[in-house]
Amino acid sequence: MKATTITAISTAPGIGGIAVIRVSGIDALKHSNAIFVAKKKSFSLLEQKAYTVSFGSVVDKQNEIIDDVLVTVFRSPHSFTGEDVVEISCHGSLFVQQKILQLLIEQGCVLAQPGEFTQRAFLNGKMDLSQAEAVADLIASTSASSHRMAMTQMRGGFSTELMKLRTQLLNFVSFIELELDFNEEDVEFVDRSKLKALATDIEQLIARLSDSFQVGNALKNGIPVALVGETNVGKSTLLNLLLNEDKAIVSEIHGTTRDVIEDLVNIKGITFRFIDTAGIRDTKDKIESLGIERTYQKIEQASIILWIVDCTQLSEHMEWLTERIAKRAEGKKVILVFNKIDKIAEDEREVLDLLFQQFSGERIYISAKDNINTEGLQIALVLAAQLPEINPGDVVVNNIRHYEALQNALTAIRRVIEGIDNGITGDFLSQDIRECMHFLGEITGSISNDEILGNIFGKFCIGK
Amino acid sequence: MKATTITAISTAPGIGGIAVIRVSGIDALKHSNAIFVAKKKSFSLLEQKAYTVSFGSVVDKQNEIIDDVLVTVFRSPHSFTGEDVVEISCHGSLFVQQKILQLLIEQGCVLAQPGEFTQRAFLNGKMDLSQAEAVADLIASTSASSHRMAMTQMRGGFSTELMKLRTQLLNFVSFIELELDFNEEDVEFVDRSKLKALATDIEQLIARLSDSFQVGNALKNGIPVALVGETNVGKSTLLNLLLNEDKAIVSEIHGTTRDVIEDLVNIKGITFRFIDTAGIRDTKDKIESLGIERTYQKIEQASIILWIVDCTQLSEHMEWLTERIAKRAEGKKVILVFNKIDKIAEDEREVLDLLFQQFSGERIYISAKDNINTEGLQIALVLAAQLPEINPGDVVVNNIRHYEALQNALTAIRRVIEGIDNGITGDFLSQDIRECMHFLGEITGSISNDEILGNIFGKFCIGK
Asked: What is residue A203's predicted lDDT score, i.e. its pLDDT?
């Protein structure tokens, strides 16, 4: 338990009907009681039962009433942080919120760091590290799928899988280390082929979790789609069209700003993250410039490429470009989007198709300006995304820190399997297994350090 | 009691650590219970005691968990609205907030209109109309004084004063109407001179309340200060300087935006509202243009005029302007601000003073660009404001609706006094007294109509 008592405004910043100020720590009740006056004269928050709400006023040192409030008492260990917690529900005035915070600080509370409440919940054993991280993901979730992943993880779905793995590995390493104790006698307690079967099972489990990152990351951060094309082919018009399609969804959610969901668009339930690229200039001698290099880099970051071509402005080096982009986009879905299709005659389409005959991927004919076949493009995007559906309870890795730890664990367990094949000694096997366990432990936080914790909780909002 | 059960997100819009969704009405417990699952199997919110908090999950119809939440139960009449109320405290994710709201609506809740919770509190007799209005003022309060006024009013300070007045008037009118019953006998139960003394007392009380509006309005909305001057005299620089001085205060308060406190500046605890005006052009023939007319209008809206003069650019018609502006600014405080004072020599100052010898008000010499004597200007502003200090509990009128009602009541009570002086008959006196009572009743809402209520509560935020 920490010695300090922390406080922060836990509701969204700004003016609202009500706001909630949270206090957590050994003196949470004492400090809150010092600024709280109930109607009953002999009232004390310190005597209130856990999970009860009291009505009264917050007063300052001159006994001036700051606000009429509701105060909820939680008692250690049955609270979010595991400590004594008080939640003060006041009117959502900026002045009132700040004033109450100030009064609590005058009493001896310390302003909470971002994520400090959740960090204390972790330190007090209320949740493991992957669950704590899921709290932040849950708060940031804006779509059904990102919410579902966070919820599963917060409720321990991921931790359960990892616990199973660690138990299996622990059994494994125990036998091997037992052998080491009897080293001079050269015994083998465990059949190496059985060990290998077990290691292979574990390897597959880790690989499955690790593989789920691609989906998890796409669901959490959006599937990266690069918009590529020459200048003035209508990329911006198309992007705006796709973003506008989303306006109905966005406006349903209060307070979402472009900062939060910048260039993210929900199309039929899937989040896409559109990466705009500098238009490629239609000049042969400049084609190898920095601009196109950067566009190539963005292509590499994307999973899907929307290559937009202006049907009315076909440049001479189109074929050459096709080849180059196709090469960079290897393993990615490329959708060739013919824009301004309403501006050309039927027979010109044949010329188009001839020009792009080398291109084997999907082709869509649209007009971004006149909103022709946007629906077709959206369907093509959803098909290209090829995301498996996530069901409630499915464990999906969506955190790069977890992914890296799993990758390291995978390397270690593969060394174990290789070691068994090569008949290496138990002490080396044991070392690799311990390493694998170490990396899995990093995910749940059973192995952690201040730097890792600082990184994780620093990204939280204040008040959580 | 209304038949519908309403719900809304009551905390500030946006992402936060936690958010609170409020449900009020006869089915608040039933609808909340339908989406809530506690750990205990036989748990039901309907059986929970008032003022208790339960931990559990919100689930959708497919039993998928949406969030882990805390649910607080309040029971009629001991709640904010006077109805059964449930507050669901969830994680502050946009998705989660919207989803829970949606689930409640699917159960049969109706999305609350702005201020509808407070309106129900009023309709259910939990507070009178002036107290309900104070709730909105309290939420909007950003300074100690505006907060103090709202708090006093919300806790019934204003209502108590009005109640006293109405009781006195009721006694008054009862005697007179008693006389009317005995009309034919031509009795006078009450000495007319005593009646007049009472009416004069009441008149003074109403006048005092009504007079406090000037202070109350200034404290609530800021004291209007017009910045007047020719173009390029440094008005913008000065305004920015004054606004920047305030940055420290503004940034202490999360989420305040220019939308909310546009051009409001707290200087030494007093809120000033700066009204920028179009610069007056230094051309004789254009001086009577629309621009200066508009500037004149703005001068009339202001209590304080900052007339800014560029010491290095004295135009020929300065004297003429001084006269004109002084005429428009009659009864207002005018502060003559000599800007760019560091750019002129000592002897040039004498020329300045000579040029403005007709001007009898305060003069301040500053440099907005080099931040010379800004402090002096601030002190001059505070002195010009001449605001009496508001103490906790002081009743101050800060609402234009109340002010208008008080003005009407004042007219009526003055007619009563005049009537006594002129010896008019009891039935006319009674009519005027009833009218005075009517206007006082409009303030507390004992007399109200849907239009008035719609106007008042429509300005609230949703969720309160």
From this structure: 93
Query: What is the rounded distance in angstroms from the CA atom of residue A98 to the CA atom of residue B147?
Result: 12
CA-nearest residue of chain B to A54?
A: B51
Which residue intervals of A35-125 are DSSP H helices?
A: 94-107, 116-123
Confirm if B160 and B122 have CB atoms less than 8 A apart.
no
- Given a cut of 80, whether residue B252 has pLDDT beyond it is no
| Whether the Cβ atoms of residue B80 and residue B74 lie closer than 8 Å to each other | yes
**B253–A94 CB contact, under 8 Å:** yes
Q: Which residues of B touch A255 (CB under 8 A)?
A: 12-15, 94
Mean of all residue pLDDT scores within chain B: 84
Q: A255: pLDDT confidence band, cut at 50, 70 and 90?
A: very low
Q: Which helix (H) or strand (E) holds B288?
A: none
Please tell me whether the peptide bond between B114 and the residue prior to it is cis, using omega within 30 degrees of 0.
no
Burial class (CB in 10 A: 0-12, 13-18, 19+), B82: buried
Task: Count Cβ–Cβ pairs < 8 Å, chain A vs chain B.
Answer: 208
- Say if CB A230 and CB A315 are below 8 A apart: yes
Instruction: Give the per-residue pLDDT at B189.
Output: 67
pLDDT band, residue B393 (cuts 50/70/90): confident
Mutation pick from B61, B86, B95, B119 vs chain A, by most beta carbons of A within 10 Å, is B95
Tokens of B196: 């007049």
Other residues' Cβ atoms within 10 Å of the Cβ of residue B407: 15
Say what the pLDDT of residue B255 is. Answer: 30
Q: How confident is the model at residue B233, as a pLDDT? A: 79
Instruction: Tell the burial category of A360 from Cβ atoms under 10 Å away from its Cβ (0-12, 13-18, 19+).
Output: exposed
Nearest Cα to Cα of residue A370 among A340, A335, A336 = A340
Can you name the residues that pair with B91 across neighbouring β-strands? Answer: B18
DSSP E strands in B60-122: the ranges are: 65-74, 85-91, 110-111
Residue A189 backbone dihedrals phi, psi, to 5 degrees: -70, -35
The tens digit of pLDDT for each residue in B94-137 reads: 889 999 999 999 999 999 999 999 999 999 999 999 999 999 98
Backbone angles phi, psi at A3, to 5 degrees: -85, -25
| Chain A contact set for B18 (CB, 8 A) | 10-11, 20, 22, 463-464
B154 phi/psi in degrees, rounded to 5? -65, -35
Q: What percent of chain B has pLDDT over 70?
A: 88
pTM: 0.77
pLDDT value, residue A418: 95
Any B CB within 8 A of A148 CB: yes
Q: Is A155 on the interface with B (CB under 8 A)?
A: yes
CB contact under 8 A, B87 and A89: yes
CA A214 and chain centroid, separation: 12
Tell whether the model's pLDDT for residue B254 goes beyond 90: no
Please, which residues bridge with residue B69 across strands? B56
Q: Are B18 and A11 in contact (CB under 8 A)?
A: yes
**Residues in B 260-289 with any Cβ partner in A closer than 8 A:** 260
Instruction: Tell the residue number behind the tokens 């911006």, with chain if given.
Output: A236
Which residues is A367 bridged to in the sheet? A372
DSSP secondary structure code for residue B141 in this structure: -
CA distance A147 to A132: 15
Closest by Cα among B146, B144, B135, B44 to B86: B44
ipTM score of the complex?
0.76
List, for residues A433-449, the tens digit of each pLDDT value.
Answer: 999 999 999 998 887 77
What's residue B171's pLDDT?
Answer: 84
DSSP-assigned states of every residue in A123-170: HTTSS-HHHHHHHHHHHH--SHHHHHHHHHHHTTHHHHHHHHHHHHHH
Minimum-distance CB partner of A93 among B18, B95, B141: B141
